[in-house]
Amino acid sequence: MAQIFHRSTNSIARISILAAIILVSGLLWAALELQRSPYVTYAGVAHMQPVPFSHQHHVGGLGLDCRYCHTSVEISGYAGIPPTKTCMNCHSQIWTNAPLLEPVRESFRSGKSLVWSRANDLPDYVYFDHSIHINKGVGCNTCHGPVDRMPLMYNQASLQMEWCLDCHRAPEKYLRPRDQVFNMRYEQPTSERPVELPAANGQGAVKFTEQSALGNELKTRYHLRSVKDITSCSTCHR
């Protein structure tokens, strides 16, 4: 029987299969990178707000503590959006006629809340509790980034599951003393800049010069659950 295909067809077939594999792999890689990119996650993208509130001015400049506005962050699953009355505590005395703040004054007069756009907004199928993270020694800027340097608020992280799991798999890399949770300028310990903790027996203090040692100590003191527990699906998807 005569040969139907030329011998070169074998080489063409091999090259075609290899090219198809490379193309599919490349498209899959591109899709994964796109899914992680700010185009999808909006990480680093400032959100439009009814009033251009500047954390850089209020936190970094004036030194307001996070809890002045986000009053429930230590005791609730939600950080909370401050009511207009909180804004008017100051702005009934300063910048009283600024056109920029007219939406705030109108909200206060009418009793109708301002509609803020959440920068750090998780899907409805994700369970997240602010209070447990705060009380276990996770700092505000660990998740939210340098808020005190943000003229307009944006989400620093992708807020995707792989980002959450990075911390849940090794929480000792991020924990800090509870009294430093709201310190936006906190720096992890080094030999040049140790971090002190009161001794467990209440006598003296213990110096830590490495984050791994400090983190493991805090995991014990703050009674963190095991990595198996905090990476369990049911921990965040209930």
Supply the key terms.
single chain; 238 residues; mainly alpha; 2 domains; two-stranded antiparallel ribbon; 12 helices
Continuous helix count = 12
Largest sheet: 2 strands, antiparallel
User: What shape does the CA trace take?
Assistant: extended
Low-confidence stretches: none
Give me the secondary-structure category. mainly alpha
Kindly state the mean pLDDT as a whole number?
93
- Strands across the major sheet, in which order? 1-2
How are helices and strands ordered from N to C? HHHHHHHHHEEHHH
| Tally of domains | 2
Number of strands: 2
How far apart lie the N and C ends?
Answer: 66 Å
Roughly how many Å is the radius of gyration?
A: 25 Å
Helicity range: 40-55%
Please report which band the strand proportion falls in: under 5%, 5-15%, 15-25%, 25-35%, 35-45% or over 45%. under 5%
Assembly classification: single chain
Keywords: Membrane, Transmembrane, Transmembrane helix
Domain Cytochrome c7-like: 126-238
Organism: Koribacter versatilis (strain Ellin345)
Transmembrane segments: 12-32
